[in-house]
Amino acid sequence: MHQVSIGSVAIIALLDAPFLQNPKVLTPDHANEMAAEFRDSLDSRGLCTGAVTCYLIRSAGSLILVDTGIGPRRRPGFPAGHLDAALREAGVGPDEIDTVVHTHLHTDHIGWNTYDAGDGRTEIFFPKARFVIQQAEWDFWTAPEMLAEPRNAALRECIEPLRHTGRIHFTQGEETLGPHLVFISAPGHTPGHVAVGISDAGERGMIIGDASHHPFHVTHPDWVTPLDWDPAQAAASRDRLFDIAAEERRLVLAGHWTHPGWGHIVRLDGRRSFRAL
Ligand SMILES: [Zn+2]
């Protein structure tokens, strides 16, 4: 089990699935440079070894889960999700999670919110949790035309069922969430995408969600990806996050980097680079 501490806050990395990504998809304009400079992060077929990782945070008596992976249903382009097994291995039941935080509402971050309970019924997988969602993100993805798109089945199955439960807690921008967590605005990948800052006893961390899909972005934030809703805004957001992380010596936790996806940003000869923990 992969675990780190930031002051009194304990964080466990839960692997939903390993996730291979093609450099030509991640950054079409710089795929060859990427493959040359970051050869060690590619497998024998030239694919980036990534992951879908969710982070479980124990903070001030609360159990908080940041993002819920691909989920139990088959999704085109994604492997099957196993967050349920990862939670079991960590000795945590879904009913012990009191808060689910979403960095954003893409398919591979909302999957375990619900499951099919048979007879056409959809149940919430975390029966006691409240769901913390940025208002801007909710408004964008729950617009009627978004929900109606055939490819947005995950929204209909994993987000729409939350609507009338009374368990959504909407946030706006850089609000705090308990004594150790704060949202950091990082729009671009999606309109309301956020990072989650963690601090206690002089130590700091930052869960960056999908502000970056691979550590090459630490050195080259401007190698844009078509996976981002607004590539230029996403590049500016990750540049800011990595500057903050380097300046404040924050541990960076990234859900799509090779599991467990955490390490530090260092500056060498005026260039930022990533050092896995
Ligand atoms: Zn993602």
Q: Main attributes?
A:
277 residues, Metallo-beta-lactamase, Chain A, 7-stranded mixed β-sheet, globular, binds zinc ion
What does this structure look like?
The chain has 277 residues and is α+β, with helices and mostly antiparallel strands. The chain has a single domain (2-276), classed as Metallo-beta-lactamase, Chain A (4-Layer Sandwich), CATH 3.60.15.10. The protein has 9 helices and 16 strands. Strands 1-2-3-4-5-8-9 form a 7-stranded mixed sheet. The protein has a 7-stranded mixed sheet with strand order 10-11-12-13-14-15-16. A hairpin with a 2-residue loop joins strand 12 and strand 13 (203-207). The two termini are 14 Å apart. Zinc ion binds at residues 106, 108-109, 210, 256.
Summarize the structure.
The protein has 277 residues and is an alpha+beta fold. The protein has helices at 23-26, 31-37, 83-89, 107-110, 135-141, 144-148, 153-159, 216-219, 231-247, and strands at residues 2-6, 9-21, 48-59, 62-66, 99-101, 114-118, 121-124, 130-134, 168-171, 176-177, 181-185, 194-200, 203-207, 251-253, 262-268, 271-276. It has a 7-stranded mixed sheet with strand order 1-2-3-4-5-8-9.
